[in-house]
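#onboarding

Welcome to the new folks! Below is a worked example of what a typical request in this channel looks like: someone posts a single protein sequence, and someone else replies with the predicted structure as tokens. Don't worry about understanding the tokens yet, we'll cover that in week two.

Example request:
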Amino acid sequence: MVVAAGQGSRFGSDVPKQFLEVAGRRVVDWSVAAAAPVASATVLVVPPGHAEMSSHSAGLRIVEGADTRSGSVRSGLAALDGLADDSDVVVVHDAARPLASTALFDAVIDAVVAGADAAVPAVAVADTLKRVDVDGRVVETVDRDGLVWVQTPQAFRCGVLRAAHRGAPEATDDAGLVEAGGGVVVVVPGESANRKVTVAGDLDVVGEVLRAGVRP
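Example response:
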């Protein structure tokens, strides 16, 4: 499942960032292509009103998302009915991460096949972290030991992910919902190159990588 239903308000463009072109293709098309080698079926979740958008990928099922990320994932899960059993592995990937490698997809899938309820890629936090109040004043310096930056793709036992979404809860990522339900979530090594397109400068960096043909 490639989630492309966000509006990308932080990016500062009239066009959602995932539909901008970079290195000859839209960001979303690069992300779908990244998932293709490991997928038996792919669902692309797009913003409401975009269900008829074209795609360069044959056999791609396109569905409309919701106003929230969790709601959009639930739309994607509904589209998987009849395609995925509870024992199957479902991978959720952000359309804004077009540089994820096939090896990273394989790593999270393998971790679920090995017995985890979910697996997420992550990299260690290298910077100092500080907590601030609403006035911008530093409240404390946060101990970064044991803290990681989490990425997508994230893999789940399909039945576990469906159960985590019952009752329409909200979270910043699906692994958080699985954690809240007591599921076992494991971490695999992430990739520093797996950059998320958040601001315009990110798109420039991603474009340089793709044009150089050195995608992981």
